[in-house]
Structure formats: structure tokens, C-alpha cells
Amino acid sequence: MTFDSDEWQDPTRFQSQQIPAIVRWTIKYSGGYVRDEKQAEYVLLGLVAFAVVLAILFFQSSRSNTQEESRAVIEKSINATDALR
Q: Which of 9, 10, 39, 15 is nearest to 26 (CA)?
């Protein structure tokens, strides 16, 4: 039996190509906490959810500060206009 070298692939190499690189990286650098592909996907999903919540909190806090500052500027300009009358 002979195999053409172009058609034959190493099974481990083929399997590692099916797993996304970020998942392989998560498993590799987790220090043994993440043992398989499914756990790595859950870890990455958790990180994305955490990032979304953090972004929402950041934008809400910056938005409320901007609104308060805008109100203060408007009140000062109204008071200044009233003082000129």
C-alpha cells in the first residue's frame, strides 16, 4: 500500500487546525485550569460578557458625568443672562 504525500495529513495536525487558534491559546496559557475546547470556549465567552458589562458601565458613567457638567454650564449661562437684565 502506498500513499501520495500530497493527500495524506497527520491526524493531530488536522485536528489542531479545526480548533480555533484563540481556543488553543486559552488552553495552552491557562496553567492547566482549562482542559478542553469546550471549557476554553466558556472562558472566552465569560471574558466577552465581562468586557461588554464593563463597557456599558464605563459609557454610562461617562455619559452621566457629561450630562451633569452640561447642566451646570447651562445653569451658569442662564444665571449670567439673568444678571445682565
A: 39
Percent of the chain with pLDDT strictly greater than 90: 45
Q: What is the DSSP string of 39-55?
A: HHHHHHHHHHHHHHHHH
Q: Is residue 6 part of a domain?
A: no
Asked if the structure places residue 1 within a domain, the reply is no
Question: Can you give the pTM of this predicted structure?
Answer: 0.58
